[in-house]
User: Fold these one by one.
Assistant:
Number 1:
Amino acid sequence: MLLNGSIIEKHNEQRMRRHQLKLASLKDEFSQTEQIIQQVAAFQVAIPSWALGTGGTRFGRFSGGGEPRSLEEKMEDIGLLHQLNRSSGAISLHIPWDIPQDPAAIRQLAQEYGLKFDAVNSNTFQDQPGQTLSYKFGSLQHVDKNVRKQAINHNIQVIQQGVELGSKAITVWLSDGSCFPGQLNFRGAFERTLESLGEIYQALPSDWKIFIEYKAFEPNFYSMTVGDWGQSLLYASKLGPKAYTLVDLGHHLPNANIEQIVALLLMEGKLAGFHFNDSKYGDDDLTVGSINPYQLFLIFNELVEGMNARNMNHVTDLGWMIDASHNVKDPLEDLMQSVEAILVAYAQALLIDTPALKEAQEANDVVRCQEILQAAFRTDLRPLVAEARIRNGGALEPLELFRSEAIRTSLIKKRGEKSVATGL
Ligand SMILES: [Mn+2]
């Protein structure tokens, strides 16, 4: 369901005077507001097809109601989200949870909602019904060549499905690793994984990329075969120019300096992009910016500075995606909060007085460096983000509108209280 455009217009009209006052105050204080509004307006964050339903933990899952029952309904949800915030114009598919049965019809539907297809995601971290060989002891790293071959073929099929939809990249996240010391020969596991990735790499169309996502632990608790950015970068460097390292914010050990990782990957031209989320302990998949918004801002500072240093296009040269799990919140509300947090952090990074920061760095003026960063971080730029949104036809307060229109209630009426999203 999409909202009637007049509902958004009316919502905006009622809040416009207040918005204009806040906007005028920012415009008065800063000279670069117009530039920031335009950059934020162009920025798009892809929504993964698995984030529209309620996730769960290994202890339980509590259904939220009105969950999308099919790929079409997931796209409907993202279409609605994009209509409200105008910054969620892409979907990232997970195969086999969301295999498009009729690619032409799915492409048509995406066009109706104004959605593009972001990177496709393969899955060799669980066994599918009817699967010949098991991934219990890994997939691309497996000691048995037949298991590796099965996993390679799956990845190649995912690429082919992505080609039919217009995707340009595949993200490979492996749960491969070991649970106990001695279980695995590390060098052997690396070499087998590299060889398997090499076969997948060979199957990439010329304009495609492969993103190698790393994760420190879980489901394997002793070693992960792509456990950190160093290992991912090693694979990506050995594979070739179409291979990149993908950073998922929740996939680090506690207190890792993610902004430094990002800066160096960008320097090497090997940063694929992001899976945004937030975490307190590990791969918690919490709402972006809900735990540590300052870290998110510092990451965007490195992104903006690093992309500008390499003359990169902020919108298209990296992949931007949310990777979160919604266990207690309404998934659509959570995604609205996440996208907003990303855009606010991006806007704040754009506000940083870069020449002054550089000058303070050269002078070893540590105090001034901190003042410059925090001056941007402590400025409330939500009116600029809202302005970008309404210029694109979105709602001034998407979350408020979602609630006042009782959209979840309508979705429950249509899909039922106990519907379960595919893959969850
Ligand atoms: Mn991820």
Note: The chain has a mean pLDDT of 96.
Number 2:
Amino acid sequence: MWGSLCAIATGPQAHRNLSLNANIFRQFCGPRETASTIDRMRRYDLRSDTLTKPSLAMRAAMAAADVGDDVYGEDPTVLRLETLVAQLLGKEGALFVPSGTMANQIALLVHTRRGDEVVVGEGTHCMQFEGGAAAAWSGVQFAVVGRGGLFSSEEVLAAIKPKAEHLPQTALVVVENTHNLGGGRVFPQSECERLAETVRARGLALHMDGARLWNAAVATGLTPKAMAAPFDTLNVCFSKGLGAPVGSAFVGSREQVRAARRFRKMLGGAMRQSGILAAAAIHALEHNLDRLAEDHAAARAFAALLGGIAGVEVAPVETNIVLLTLESADAHAIAQRAAERGVLVQAMGPRTLRAVTHLDIGEEATVQAAKILAEILSR
Ligand SMILES: Cc1ncc(COP(=O)(O)O)c(C=O)c1O
């Protein structure tokens, strides 16, 4: 398995530049000037799996939720969700929070002190896409290791700073699984287990940003509990492929969850009758977990249709994210032309396009979208 990690980490895909650039920022945050044009035609929205809207059944579950004040610890639906998630991941406790960003930032606060260093892979969400929160709240800095979001225990070992007054102290290692910017890559389980041994032997902690842990579990056939076992704490999201409108959980030991509860309060994330939201997350876990395999199949079908086009390199598809590298075409111009024909994909850089399959776009529509994009790319 270690051999296969090396193969993934040093193959052609590994050299994708995962650093933040202005183009990614524009795509995430820029004006939606294409919306009026595409309103008139069928729209295939493959920009992200966060775009799903709650189904009628999910809304019914939310409306029927038994609620109380969760700041008093009295919301029965939130308590039910937290118990369910802790059991699913084999940990002592879980804390419902509004977002994956908050769960990750709470993890940094739980595991580190100001001035500490956190070891991460390239393009890791908690370093790159959380608005500089780590610098603002926990006051940590990052050491980036590996390629394409994957890294080995040897690379972590080499990055751990010796105890010295001049140096930041390494406190935590974060694994993102699946890796978003790396194209939905699954972090090999055997390497997670080796990382756990490495960090434990040095008194460090291991956190998983498992916003899409569910996709990794479905792709590998491992249980979420087995995948969580090497980690001290996790962030898991209900608002990505699972299709809930809001919500994530910070998961860990009883003591870590107690500390997390205080940080959630400090960050303004303690909510009142949040059982309405927790009900959506429970519905998502009960109905939308196994079906992620359909999103993965749709992603493979999408990739297959674009694979043979000259000047387009399609990264191997592991889960629900497809990354296309364009040899010479401008990714933003292609995304714009695709949007004009109703296909929304994300330009992640000057030469990179991303498409994400999800609950609200089935395989048939995904294939339709791929055909339209293939036409545009073939010209
Ligand atoms: C890997 C990863 N971690 C964390 C997050 C943050 O989640 P949220 O948008 O709920 O803050 C995202 C969001 O897409 C993500 O892709």
Note: The first strand starts at residue 44 and ends at 45.
